[in-house]
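Posting this for the archive.
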Amino acid sequence: MDKIDLKDKKILYQLDLNSRQSLSQIAKKVGLSKKVVSYRIKRLQKIGVIKNFYTVIDSYKLGYTSFRFYLALQNTTPEMEQEIINYFINNKDTWWITRVEGRRFDFVAIIWIKDINDFLKFWDKTLLNYRKYFAEQIFSVYAQMALYRFSFLLDDYQTVDRKKFEITGGGKKVEYDDLDLQILNLLASNARIPIKDISRKLYISTITIKNRIKRLIKSGVIQGFRIDIDPFKIGYQYYKVDIELNDYKKIHQIISYIKNNPNLVCIEKSAGFADLELRFYVKDLNELKNIMKDLTIKFASIIRNYNYFYASEIYKIKFIP
């Protein structure tokens, strides 16, 4: 674990708030010079705290849906496991893949789908190559993701800072063209890419690029610009909790309560898996257990059961095919 101080944490928080902020804007908010902010960001990247800058894109608004699957492996070698992971990483429609520990699964992947037949062709190819290594496979329709700010970085956070980005399976589809997709793909991989670089790569004027980005933000296709951090590097662990409810009608009572917890980073909903899915960055397992003890005591009549697992590594985050 690398040592970071409060100034580093404030810079990380600002980058998570909007990773396209200029160095001058961040410097003003954290009380440092532009030069020092630049140095600290580069250092945080060098030591692996900042893995990359990415754009949260609601691809549901572009006409996509998502399938998520949990896979348990069998009879593999470390080399074969890596081959399977690389197979999913290199699939253009995979937008999230994570290694997990603590339950019977080995990793989780989420895939964008626009045509079910295309997905079935991909999955048929997957089984032809790797079926003998799959001990178990569980699918669900991935319906919604609400991503919350990294408030755990700040000791004096306010609940108003818990503003979220939301990826939802409903709502009106947005009209778009190839230029929009090209811009989104560049931003998806590097949220801090300068407008002039996008302009040069696409041979389009900077004014046009700016206007397109503004429109994509206004329409809700672009939800925000964030950072992908390695929680272990700053003394945190990444856990997911799957909750089964006795009374689903009261799910919003739990959400209204837990969303103010600074360690909560995501709430997920899916069809065909848990009733409520929560993700946390915590310092250790005891901190997670204390959070869940508080939650189960407060909502004892609503929560039936819960399970958790540890996400040991995130291999890919890209919110657009």
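The radius of gyration is 20 Å. Residues 60-143 form a domain with the Alpha-Beta Plaits fold (CATH 3.30.70.920).
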